[in-house]
Amino acid sequence: MKLPRIVGVAGTNASGKDTLGHLLAERGYTTISLSDILRHDLDEQGLPHTRENLSHQSKKIRDAHGDGGMSKRAIDMHYDKDGLCITSIRTPGEAEMIQQHGGVIIWIDADRRVRYDRIMRAHRGRLEDQVTFEQFAEQEDAEMTPSEQGGGLNMGGVKALADVYIDNTFEDVDSYSRHLIEQLELSA
Questions:
Q1: Comparing 9 with 67, which gets the higher pLDDT?
Q2: pLDDT confidence of residue 78
Q3: pTM of whole model > 0.70?
Q4: Quick one: where's region Disordered (predicted)?
Q5: Helices 17-26 and 173-183, axial angle in degrees (round to 10)
Q6: Secondary structure element (H or E) that encloses residue 66, with its range
Q7: Residue range of the domain that includes 51
Q8: Residue 160 belongs to a domain with what CATH number?
Protein backbone atom coordinates (compact mmCIF):
# COMPACT_ATOMS: atom_id res chain seq x y z
CA MET A 1 0.00 0.00 0.00
CA LYS A 2 1.49 3.33 -1.03
CA LEU A 3 0.91 5.94 1.67
CA PRO A 4 -0.67 9.36 1.06
CA ARG A 5 0.77 12.71 2.12
CA ILE A 6 -0.83 12.55 5.58
CA VAL A 7 -0.56 9.43 7.73
CA GLY A 8 -2.11 9.02 11.15
CA VAL A 9 -0.48 6.42 13.37
CA ALA A 10 -2.55 5.12 16.26
CA GLY A 11 -2.45 2.14 18.54
CA THR A 12 -1.86 0.88 21.98
CA ASN A 13 0.98 2.08 24.21
CA ALA A 14 4.40 0.61 23.20
CA SER A 15 2.99 -1.15 20.14
CA GLY A 16 5.51 0.33 17.70
CA LYS A 17 3.99 3.65 16.64
CA ASP A 18 7.25 5.57 17.10
CA THR A 19 9.16 3.07 14.95
CA LEU A 20 6.79 3.74 12.06
CA GLY A 21 7.08 7.47 12.71
CA HIS A 22 10.88 7.25 12.52
CA LEU A 23 10.72 5.26 9.27
CA LEU A 24 8.46 7.89 7.73
CA ALA A 25 10.71 10.70 9.00
CA GLU A 26 13.65 9.02 7.25
CA ARG A 27 11.60 9.23 4.06
CA GLY A 28 10.87 12.95 4.32
CA TYR A 29 7.69 13.00 6.42
CA THR A 30 7.46 15.52 9.23
CA THR A 31 6.48 13.46 12.26
CA ILE A 32 4.54 15.05 15.08
CA SER A 33 3.22 13.29 18.16
CA LEU A 34 -0.02 14.57 19.61
CA SER A 35 1.29 13.38 22.99
CA ASP A 36 4.36 15.59 22.54
CA ILE A 37 2.07 18.57 21.90
CA LEU A 38 0.31 17.77 25.17
CA ARG A 39 3.64 17.41 27.02
CA HIS A 40 4.74 20.78 25.64
CA ASP A 41 1.48 22.36 26.85
CA LEU A 42 1.97 20.81 30.31
CA ASP A 43 5.54 22.12 30.43
CA GLU A 44 4.25 25.63 29.72
CA GLN A 45 1.79 25.21 32.61
CA GLY A 46 4.46 23.81 34.94
CA LEU A 47 2.59 20.51 35.34
CA PRO A 48 4.12 17.01 35.49
CA HIS A 49 3.52 14.58 32.61
CA THR A 50 1.18 12.22 34.45
CA ARG A 51 -1.41 10.21 32.55
CA GLU A 52 -4.12 12.22 34.33
CA ASN A 53 -2.62 15.59 33.34
CA LEU A 54 -2.13 14.48 29.73
CA SER A 55 -5.75 13.32 29.54
CA HIS A 56 -6.99 16.52 31.17
CA GLN A 57 -5.02 18.71 28.73
CA SER A 58 -6.32 16.68 25.79
CA LYS A 59 -9.89 17.15 27.04
CA LYS A 60 -9.34 20.91 27.39
CA ILE A 61 -8.25 21.11 23.76
CA ARG A 62 -11.18 18.96 22.57
CA ASP A 63 -13.62 21.08 24.59
CA ALA A 64 -12.22 24.27 23.05
CA HIS A 65 -11.62 23.10 19.46
CA GLY A 66 -13.70 19.95 18.94
CA ASP A 67 -12.81 16.26 18.98
CA GLY A 68 -10.42 16.68 16.04
CA GLY A 69 -8.71 19.75 17.49
CA MET A 70 -5.38 18.09 18.17
CA SER A 71 -5.04 16.72 14.63
CA LYS A 72 -6.21 20.00 13.15
CA ARG A 73 -3.52 21.80 15.14
CA ALA A 74 -0.84 19.45 13.76
CA ILE A 75 -2.14 19.71 10.19
CA ASP A 76 -2.31 23.51 10.33
CA MET A 77 1.24 23.71 11.68
CA HIS A 78 2.78 21.34 9.11
CA TYR A 79 0.46 20.99 6.10
CA ASP A 80 2.94 22.62 3.70
CA LYS A 81 5.43 19.78 4.19
CA ASP A 82 5.97 16.95 1.68
CA GLY A 83 4.51 14.44 4.08
CA LEU A 84 3.03 14.55 7.57
CA CYS A 85 2.92 11.69 10.05
CA ILE A 86 0.72 12.33 13.08
CA THR A 87 1.18 9.86 15.94
CA SER A 88 -0.58 9.18 19.25
CA ILE A 89 -4.12 9.60 17.94
CA ARG A 90 -6.55 8.85 20.76
CA THR A 91 -10.02 10.03 19.68
CA PRO A 92 -12.20 9.27 16.65
CA GLY A 93 -12.37 12.98 15.82
CA GLU A 94 -8.58 13.14 15.53
CA ALA A 95 -8.67 10.18 13.10
CA GLU A 96 -11.57 11.63 11.13
CA MET A 97 -9.80 14.99 10.78
CA ILE A 98 -6.80 13.22 9.21
CA GLN A 99 -9.06 11.24 6.87
CA GLN A 100 -10.94 14.41 5.89
CA HIS A 101 -7.59 15.83 4.76
CA GLY A 102 -6.96 12.79 2.52
CA GLY A 103 -4.91 10.84 5.05
CA VAL A 104 -5.04 7.26 6.27
CA ILE A 105 -5.07 5.86 9.79
CA ILE A 106 -2.75 2.99 10.64
CA TRP A 107 -3.58 1.06 13.83
CA ILE A 108 -0.70 -0.81 15.49
CA ASP A 109 -1.16 -3.31 18.32
CA ALA A 110 0.62 -6.12 20.15
CA ASP A 111 -0.01 -8.34 23.14
CA ARG A 112 -0.50 -6.27 26.31
CA ARG A 113 2.14 -8.06 28.41
CA VAL A 114 4.68 -7.75 25.58
CA ARG A 115 4.00 -4.02 25.35
CA TYR A 116 4.30 -3.52 29.12
CA ASP A 117 7.61 -5.38 29.13
CA ARG A 118 8.84 -3.17 26.27
CA ILE A 119 8.09 -0.07 28.34
CA MET A 120 9.89 -1.43 31.38
CA ARG A 121 12.97 -2.35 29.29
CA ALA A 122 13.02 0.95 27.38
CA HIS A 123 13.39 3.26 30.39
CA ARG A 124 11.90 6.12 28.37
CA GLY A 125 12.00 8.39 31.42
CA ARG A 126 8.31 9.23 31.17
CA LEU A 127 6.47 9.69 34.43
CA GLU A 128 3.36 8.05 32.95
CA ASP A 129 5.38 4.83 32.36
CA GLN A 130 6.07 4.30 36.06
CA VAL A 131 3.12 1.99 36.75
CA THR A 132 2.48 -1.63 37.62
CA PHE A 133 1.14 -4.01 34.98
CA GLU A 134 -2.29 -3.86 36.63
CA GLN A 135 -2.29 -0.04 36.50
CA PHE A 136 -1.11 -0.17 32.89
CA ALA A 137 -3.99 -2.50 31.98
CA GLU A 138 -6.55 -0.42 33.90
CA GLN A 139 -5.42 2.82 32.21
CA GLU A 140 -5.51 1.23 28.78
CA ASP A 141 -8.97 -0.24 29.33
CA ALA A 142 -10.25 3.18 30.41
CA GLU A 143 -8.78 4.82 27.29
CA MET A 144 -10.23 2.25 24.86
CA THR A 145 -13.85 3.30 25.47
CA PRO A 146 -15.27 6.78 25.97
CA SER A 147 -15.45 7.60 29.66
CA GLU A 148 -14.55 10.31 32.12
CA GLN A 149 -12.17 7.82 33.77
CA GLY A 150 -10.30 7.60 30.46
CA GLY A 151 -10.22 11.39 30.09
CA GLY A 152 -12.78 11.27 27.28
CA LEU A 153 -10.42 9.27 25.08
CA ASN A 154 -11.81 6.55 22.81
CA MET A 155 -9.01 4.56 21.27
CA GLY A 156 -11.46 1.75 20.45
CA GLY A 157 -13.29 4.24 18.24
CA VAL A 158 -10.00 5.15 16.53
CA LYS A 159 -9.26 1.47 15.94
CA ALA A 160 -12.68 1.06 14.30
CA LEU A 161 -11.85 3.90 11.87
CA ALA A 162 -8.40 2.58 10.92
CA ASP A 163 -7.61 1.95 7.27
CA VAL A 164 -4.66 -0.38 7.99
CA TYR A 165 -4.06 -2.78 10.90
CA ILE A 166 -0.61 -3.98 11.94
CA ASP A 167 0.06 -6.61 14.61
CA ASN A 168 3.56 -6.05 15.96
CA THR A 169 4.38 -9.56 17.12
CA PHE A 170 7.96 -9.25 15.91
CA GLU A 171 10.86 -10.35 18.11
CA ASP A 172 12.94 -7.27 17.42
CA VAL A 173 12.75 -3.78 15.97
CA ASP A 174 14.70 -4.70 12.82
CA SER A 175 12.22 -7.45 11.85
CA TYR A 176 9.30 -5.15 12.57
CA SER A 177 10.88 -2.32 10.54
CA ARG A 178 11.46 -4.63 7.55
CA HIS A 179 7.80 -5.68 7.72
CA LEU A 180 6.63 -2.05 7.76
CA ILE A 181 8.89 -1.14 4.84
CA GLU A 182 7.53 -4.02 2.78
CA GLN A 183 3.84 -3.73 3.73
CA LEU A 184 3.68 0.05 3.38
CA GLU A 185 6.00 0.28 0.35
CA LEU A 186 8.49 2.50 2.14
CA SER A 187 11.49 1.88 -0.08
CA ALA A 188 14.05 4.65 0.22
A1: 9
A2: 77
A3: yes
A4: 49-68
A5: 60
A6: none
A7: 6-183
A8: 3.40.50.300
